């Protein structure tokens, strides 16, 4: 066969395959399917509000910077849980924060199916000195991780009360994740 014949056969093959390359369907991840089943949508990731990054990977661990309950309009759920917000509103703020952490994690690792384990969570609750239900508030975050990841979502955790948080957020949560 001459080079011209090989070239023309290659060109024909390329022209036959080319239309199908853009049509390749990627199968949704198991976690993406789980989120859809739960009626949850990950928000867009946002740039950090100061001089830090959203996530740092070292080995198989991902350390996620603190995130808060940012609404779609860019504002945060603010106030002190126990005085400005009810315990239930604090729980919901922690759930919204969990979605933001999952979005940041997905942006870092590409596919949430790579999560081997949610390792550690630090939950901070903006509250007064007499409020003692910080664990119940941060359960909003933890419960969502377990709904999404099952046993892999169970983690070690600290839930603390603080006098204030950036932008007067109601909650802020940091997370450490092991990936495969």
TrEMBL record:
Protein keywords: Signal
Entries under InterPro entries matching the protein: Endoribo_LPSP/chorism_mut-like, RutC-like_sf
SUPFAM superfamilies in alphabetical order: YjgF-like (SSF55298)
Superkingdom assignment: Bacteria
Gene3D superfamilies: RutC-like
Signal peptide per UniProt: 1-24
Protein name: Endoribonuclease L-PSP
Organism: Haliscomenobacter hydrossis (strain ATCC 27775 / DSM 1100 / LMG 10767 / O)
Pfam families, per database record: YjgF_endoribonc
UniProt keyword Signal present: yes
Domain Endoribonuclease L-PSP/chorismate mutase-like: 34-166
């Amino acid at each position: 066969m001459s080079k011209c014949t090989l070239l023309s056969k290659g060109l024909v093959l390329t022209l036959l395959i080319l239309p199908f390359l853009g049509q390749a369907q990627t199968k949704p991840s198991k976690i993406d399917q789980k989120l859809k089943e739960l009626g949850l949508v990950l928000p867009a990731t946002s740039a950090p509000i100061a001089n830090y990054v959203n996530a740092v990977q070292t080995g198989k661990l991902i350390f996620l910077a603190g995130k808060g309950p940012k609404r779609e309009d860019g504002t945060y759920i603010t106030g002190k849980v126990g005085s400005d917000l009810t315990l239930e509103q604090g729980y919901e703020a922690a759930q919204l924060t969990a979605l933001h952490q999952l979005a940041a994690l997905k942006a870092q690792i590409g596919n949430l199916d790579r999560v081997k384990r949610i390792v550690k969570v630090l939950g901070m609750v903006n509250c007064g000195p007499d409020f003692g239900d910080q664990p119940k508030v941060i359960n909003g975050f933890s419960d969502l991780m377990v709904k999404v990841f099952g046993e892999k979502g169970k983690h070690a955790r600290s839930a603390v009360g603080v006098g204030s948080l950036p932008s007067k957020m109601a909650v802020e949560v940091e997370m450490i994740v092991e990936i495969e």
